[in-house]
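// run 5 | inverse folding | seed 20
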């Protein structure tokens, strides 16, 4: 899957034209997009009961192991890079909650709610889309809702 799959997925919501592409990798998207790193919505890939899940968090948040275990009844185990591509459908750097493989559950972390809008990736290492938190909840594929999974953000 790729930015093309993400655009196709977002087209059903009329948002495909909002995908931004930058001449630099996602490591510097905050500079290209002119936003603080905390507003970059990270999509973190984990394995729960043998299946992949995504937790989308603010850029300055870190998954809190006790909160993860309380929510999912297992220890946080991130997918390997090969598992991310195989189980999620996007390569690391472009992982996002759009155009993903069927059955991947997406959870949104409350760390993003302090911003008017956030910038998740859009299927490639040099793409993003600006969405409000309400829009993100509406368009995130197989979204399971909001939760408190993280620490380290203010």
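// decoded
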């Amino acid at each position: 899957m790729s930015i093309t799959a993400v655009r196709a997925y977002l087209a059903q919501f009329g948002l495909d034209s909002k995908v931004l592409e930058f001449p630099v990798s996602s490591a510097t998207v905050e500079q290209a997009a002119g936003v603080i790193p905390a507003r970059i919505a990270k999509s973190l890939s984990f394995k729960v009961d043998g299946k992949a899940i995504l937790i989308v968090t603010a850029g300055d948040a870190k998954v809190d192991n006790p909160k993860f275990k309380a929510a999912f009844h297992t220890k946080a185990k991130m997918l390997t890079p090969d598992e991310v591509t195989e189980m999620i459908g996007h390569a690391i750097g472009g992982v996002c909650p759009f155009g993903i493989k069927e059955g991947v559950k997406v959870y949104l972390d409350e760390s993003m709610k302090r911003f008017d809008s956030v910038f998740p990736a859009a299927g490639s290492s040099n793409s993003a889309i600006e969405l409000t938190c309400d829009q993100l909840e509406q368009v995130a594929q197989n979204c399971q809702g909001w939760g408190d999974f993280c620490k380290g953000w203010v």
